[in-house]
Amino acid sequence: MLKLNPLNFISTQYIPAFKKQQESAVNQLQTNPLERSPETDTFVSKTKDVNSTKITSKDFASKKQLIEDYNTVLKENMFGDEINYLLKPKMNAAGEITFTKKQARIITMAAKKISFYKTVAKKMEQDGNEAIEPALKQLKKVFGGEKEFGKYLKAREKDGQPVSKDSVSIYNKLIKEYKNEYIDGDVLNSFAKVFDKKNYKQLDKEEKALIKIFIENGELKLDTRGYNALEESLKTSAKDYKKAVSWIKDLIGIRLVLPDNADMKKAEEYLTKAILQNTIKVTRVSNYHSNHIYPYISKDTAKLWQQSLPGMQVLNNSAVRKKNGYTTTQLNIEFEFKDKNGKTKNALGELQIRSEKLNYLGQIEHLIYDILAKKDIGKGIPELQDYFDSTGIVDAVNEVFSDPIKENAYLEYEKTTYAQIRNSETKNKHIYIEDKDYPLLADFGLGQYEVLSFESLDLIDKKANLIKKKYGPKH
Hints:
Largest sheet: 6 strands, mixed
Distance between the termini: 59 Å
Order of helices and strands: HEHHEEHEEEHHHHEHEHEEEHHHHH
């Protein structure tokens, strides 16, 4: 019998139909390479608690390391629930934790891959910090220097100094991309067969939830092809290093934040000249905006760039359509620089273009997404956390974004605000947008959540910055 308590939202009528499909498909799958064979090869640890290993015998040194590696793999969330269920050790009659040799192999390889990504992340942060000044100098020249738009360029900063993307953020992105490219693809595709679908990513939420149930209960196995794909993904080489580097497209982060009265067409002309003359190497252009909101770079200009630089990507599809109306133009650029030893290297950077007003709105609304991502919004400062608690913003965010109707209403509120501002910045007014005062949350049936209005977020942001300045770490 299946234990369905964790997923009560799944229709009980849906499960038997899936069960029938699943039983048929499982019969066609090969034996799970991670399962124990009748003669069970195991690594044994004489402890009942995986998280508090107490091994004193020298004979168990490798087993202790294996358990440490297993806990590392779980902590770093490298695979996701599906593979974690397959790696879960068993307890024998003597109270000993046991792993199969194939489980041990995957765990050991995964721990090494984690170490590899952490090393890559530190190396990339170092390269990024060496590349910031040359990159900023190059872009300032593109935008006419300090006397022209170059003065509006600003690199990512920490404590007032330009910095690369930090190694922790780089590492987290590497793990995310690893799962997206390997685990969510070839590996988990072996489970999608039970629904007669080709790819795991094509499954809906209910189907994925059901697959987790059957994996956890040992009724759905990873086939040999899936296991081989998993093992292959954990190998490392020079090729893997290059791929990891290619995943971090914003190692260097620079923004062109234009005054509200600035001529955007002029910025467009600066970029066009630089791209056509090959002064900068742009690899991708993303015009983030929503329907009825003009992007910062026109589609015609982006098309001209693409024609002059074969291979450049221009994203104008649903990938850059933001439900909340978020508007910016993002250029991915490959910068060339010399490291401290004089060796020529390349670093990937990101240039974002937006106005002061939209830039500020994007900054203050980010608090909402930090809350949804369960980040430490208090930054380890008790006074700051107390302040956020007193505003009730965390409860408001969770209430609104746990209700699809309220969430859609809030996204519409954001989109309308962005549209009003962007429309005021362009000479060609959008016919679908009326010139009027900025919208109120009450207009969208969310009057009781005034703490989430842009006006309130503005006040909260200002107060939070004062608290961080007063109580935060002193440098």
